[in-house]
Amino acid sequence: MNLNIDSLRENYINKTITIQDVLSSIKNKIKETKNHNIWIYTLSDKELEAYIKNLETKDPKELPLYGIPFAIKDNIDLENIPTTAGCKEYKYTPKDSAFVVSKLIEAGAIPIGKTNLDQFATGLVGTRSPYGECKNSINPEYISGGSSSGSAVSVALDMVSFSLGTDTAGSGRVPAAFNNLIGLKATKGVVSTSGVVPACRSLDCVTVFAKDLDDIESVFEIVNKYDEEDIYSREYTATTKKAKNEFTFAIPQKSQLKFFGDEQAKQLFFYAIKKFESLGGKAIEIDYEPFNESANLLYSGPWVTERYIAIKDTITKTPQVVEKTVRAIISGGNKIDAINYFESEYTLKKNRKYVNKIFTDFDFLLTPTTGTIYKIDEVNNDPIQLNTNLGYYTNYMNLLDLSAIAVPAGFRDNGLPFGVTIVADAFEEEKLLSYSSKYLGV
Question: What contacts 24+ positions apart, CB below 8 Å, involve 327-331?
């Protein structure tokens, strides 16, 4: 069944399909893919009934997401449904939905369930969960990417039209690349994080996964609303900047590119560069080190303390319930002092000045989303270093207050997808969407 938003809406309007038809198809898919460990919780027929009933008196033409199924990463609240953040002992049941979830439901969307994730949103791999390792949608021997693992795979395997993830270090982009999806990570604060279990509260972003760029745009238009209750919420004003017929874009210097031995990923990245050049672009190499230096602060700097604060009671009182790799990463967060914080802040301020110049001189920065992909067994044998490799092109993004969109960029010979990320300054989402449309030919 085609779950594209426009296609579903047209079928609803023409009465060629019912919400029950869609949900029945989804339930079958969920049963068929149980071994992928995608879901932590799926809504029962009784729990779905309220959402369906709410739409009975509504006109499909008047609700932009009428009857559109979506998935929610299980660190984002859905009213009266447990939130676990990937830790059974942490579980609680919220009385209200997260701000972003409420906006989607008001627009007519139907939540299907809560998806698996790297515990406490700490990881880019999708393997750090007591609910099972989430498997890649194309080849189950490979990682799904994380931490928004189930959210991405649920879209890739046609169980929902779109899904919500979160992104602190790359969690809304890496799983997109590994499952041939589009992943939008908007500017910090543009999408509310009220009702989201924090990873790093000052950096966290709620993200959107979909197969089609039109679906990304439709959802983004609904969720980019100011939230008075979120201390990090920011008013969104769409930029007037759009894709140009002739443009310049930055790429890292060749000596600074890392593919970790993945030659086909390297070839696909250079093909993506050539494709943008064929569309009127001119690629210019820049010094990537300020981005990399900023990225390294995410886990070596004071932001690890935010992760510690987020689960302080759990990690101090019952550390054994925290997955061992997650525990190893977060437990050091109580040892970071103010000196480390200010030194890190000074580094970011220096690098942000450099970034300002980059996005004044260039229309966007183009990088691989990741340099490679790994098998689940490989990650289990070397969890921290391989995760670090995956964050080489992603970890700096929120520290430097940038916006980004991950888009598909071809396939390796073994059928696994490769993706690139288009990066722009804060509040330049419309420009990102415009260049993505140009690149994808839509």
Answer: 328/384, 329/122, 329/299, 329/304, 329/384, 330/120, 330/122, 330/304
The helix (run of H) or strand (run of E) holding residue 207 is strand 205-210
H helices within 331-407, ranges in order?
A: 338-361, 376-381, 383-390
With residue 210 as reference, give the H or E element that holds it: strand 205-210
Cα distance between residue 191 and residue 223, in whole Å: 6
Question: Beta-carbon neighbour count of residue 396 at 10 Å?
Answer: 26
For the chain, residues with pLDDT lower than 50 are none
Angle at 220 between CA 217 and CA 223, to 5 degrees: 160
Q: Quick: pLDDT tens for 292-334.
A: 999 999 999 999 999 999 999 999 999 999 999 999 999 999 9
Torsion of CA 337, 340, 198, 424, to 10 degrees: 170
Q: How many CB atoms lie within 10 A of CB 106?
A: 13
Sheet holding 364-368, edge to edge: 39-42, 110-115, 69-73, 162-167, 205-210, 182-185, 402-411, 417-425, 364-368, 247-252, 281-286
The reported pLDDT for the residue numbered 241 is 86
**One CATH from 3.40.50.880, 3.90.1300.10, 3.90.550.10, 2.40.50.140 for 247-298+323-404+415-440:** 3.90.1300.10
Structural contact between residues 213 and 230, judged by C-beta atoms closer than 8 angstroms:
no
Superfamily grouping for domain 5-223: Amidase signature (AS) domain (3.90.1300.10)
Both tokens of residue 380?
């289990």
- Note whether 5-223 and 247-298+323-404+415-440 share their fold: yes
pLDDT of residue 238: 87
CB of 311 closer than 8 Å to CB of 323: no
372 and 259 Cβ atoms separated by less than 8 Å: yes
Q: Is this structure's pTM higher than 0.90?
A: yes
Q: Where are the domains of the chain?
A: 5-223, 247-298+323-404+415-440
Report how far residue 14's alpha carbon sits from residue 28's, in angstroms, rounded to the nearest whole number: 24
- CA-nearest of 143, 201, 183 to 390 is 143
Where do the DSSP E strands lie in 287-426?
A: 364-368, 402-411, 417-425
Indicate which residues carry an active-site annotation.
73, 147, 171
CA neighbor of 113 nearest in space, from 70, 148, 155: 70
State residue 183's pLDDT score: 98
Q: What's the per-residue H, E or C state across 90-106?
A: HCECCCCCCHHHHHHHH
State the pairing for strand pair 417-425/364-368: antiparallel
- Residue 232: exposure state from Cβ atoms within 10 A (0-12, 13-18, ≥19): middle
